[in-house]
Amino acid sequence: MSSVLSHNKDQPRVRKTLSDSSTSSTASTKSQKHEKLSRLSSSGSSDVSNDSSTNHAESYFLRRENRLSARKKAEEESANNDYKKMYEKALATNHRLKSRLETSKQELAMIQDQLQRTQKGRAEDCSSNMLETEKKESWSIKKRITDLEEQLKVKAELNMENQRLKDENGALIRVITKLSK
Q1: Partners of 16 in the β-ladder
Q2: pTM over 0.90
């Protein structure tokens, strides 16, 4: 972890870690550097030890700034590369989905065509089936009609025979009553 050397004329040197100062933004870091540089230029060269410490602090801040700018550039480049990769990945996904959509559309068209052919075939089959069923129904109805006509004829014959037997029975009863007198 890097540390920042804080130096003030009246205060002793104090080391701060970057994690302590990370909450402050880069703008405050730049303002601190600017303050230190302005203090350096206003103090002149009154003390050789003070001058060497300011040179040391100044070089430290320049190195730090260079490192930060290099890191920032690397992050930007990696971010650009990441965006590029994401864009290429999205394009590949879009292309894959478009091809799947096309195949699905083709399959749908084939299935619809098969469905229409099947429905036409069924309609023809249904009409021929309906004719056959109608013929069968008509034949069964005609057969039933003929059976009913025969039954009517038999019934009429039975009624006539029944009437004849009644008449005969009545005649026999009269004959027996005349004979018994």
Answers
A1: 4
A2: no
